[in-house]
Design a protein that fits this description.
Oligomer: single chain
Largest sheet: 6 strands, mixed
Helix content: 25-40%
Distance between the termini: 76 Å
Strand content: 15-25%
Strand order of the largest sheet: 3-2-1-4-7-6
Radius of gyration: 21 Å
Structural class: alpha/beta
Shape: globular
Amino acid sequence: MDGVPKTRGFVTMAVGKEYYYLLAKNLLISYKFHNPAPFPFAIICDKENATTALFDDVVIIDSPSYSYLDKLRLAELAPYDETIFIDADSLILKDLGGLWDIVEGAPDFGIFGAVYDPATEKGKMHLDRAGMLRDRMNFPCTCQGGMYFIRKSDKLVPFMELSFFILKNFSEFQEPGHPNPSDDTIFPLACSIFNFPPPEDWYKLFCFVPESDIHYLNVVEGKISYDWHWLKGALGPGCYFVHFTTKATKEWLYNREMYRLSCSVNGKKRSFLRLAAIWLSCWATTLSRAIVYYSKVLAYRVLRFLRLRP
């Protein structure tokens, strides 16, 4: 309403496994460490526990799907007038206040990605996958699902309904190389139809671990240096946070940085032996994952060989 101050804040999501709540807690720790006078930080979750009690606001999601589908409901669940969503498998590197300047003129649902020229090969590819909705598209675009912006308005309900329509008919819209639906394949098409262009490309705002080579990272100092696989040159100084993915949070880099951060927050001296134990644990996890993977590959090849025998 006019004359009523708008509320602003951040939100993350943890649904299902206790591990996701641990990630959300770590994200909050890194946020508070780098944001001494922070905006409120909420959590969308399926239950209340000791972790959710640490957040400023708690939003309980009814009938969760325990998958990316819950992110399709961000337009409904965002707790503030203006909300920035950050994935729980992330760690903050600096004061996030600058993000509000970036989203100042953003549409009511803001994805972070690129708009493509329809005349280019990339643009044509996105147009070709629009199927029955092609004539309603305003531009081809893409995004990365580590961050979204939501501003409460009467457009959000129909936007969410369209997102679920795209999901239901995803075989009509699937992108080559991405046969399975996800929030970052569904939202770009919905945003194009609603004429919601991305306010900024995601790679200028955060580091996405699977698509980067990290040369140096120190979460406590808020320092990072890295190269994108497709774009060389250290982009660390403009990086607000690191988006690891759940798989990468079980590896050495994430766990080392969380140990360093925990020591700084709690005023404890770092232990070389503790770091060594963390490294061994991460190495064992990686090794066991590799053993399971290659065992499945071997079993598949043996079964295929047996079926092909005369």
